[in-house]
Amino acid sequence: MTYRSGILVVQRYAVGDSHPVTLGALNRKSDAPLEAVTRLAAYKGFEGISWPNVLATLSLDQGLASLDELEAVRRYVDSLPRTARYEILHCSWVGGDATPASPSGFVSVGFDVGNYESEDSSYSAVLHELMFGKYSQLAEYRRRLNEDQLFWSIDDARGFLRRREHLIGEGFDLETDDNSESAVIHVAVAIR
Q: Which pLDDT value is given to residue 180?
């Protein structure tokens, strides 16, 4: 796994009475629809609509902007239509035993698990397989999520990742990508 970190702007998925629980092209059914809407509205991980209407003036590397561009990113977010909810995130891939620190101006919201390859390719296993998944072997990890629907504990995130990889090895139908592996990603939200 390659260590990297940077800024990501995410437009959050719409939820509420006039919006079904829709995740990109996927329509997920939940056995507890009200809980599903509440969980999706609270989710602060890296998945959403990345860099909506991105400006050519921002320089992205694998879908992330440098911390040096934070002020330009803030201006970009301020220019977006007010018809949706946007968040500025700092994402750090977790490797080894150290927990990444949140940069100045950001507050940690927890750990997501999945793949973020670029603004056009992301998949949160927490969102798709834990919050809306069908396997009881993963569902037990739901109780370990915080109010932002992420793991507070890096150990819980790693445990979920290991369990998921074990299930994939057993033939369970979970998302895989031959070109990348799932990782634990620390997420921090910009203080506005």
A: 63
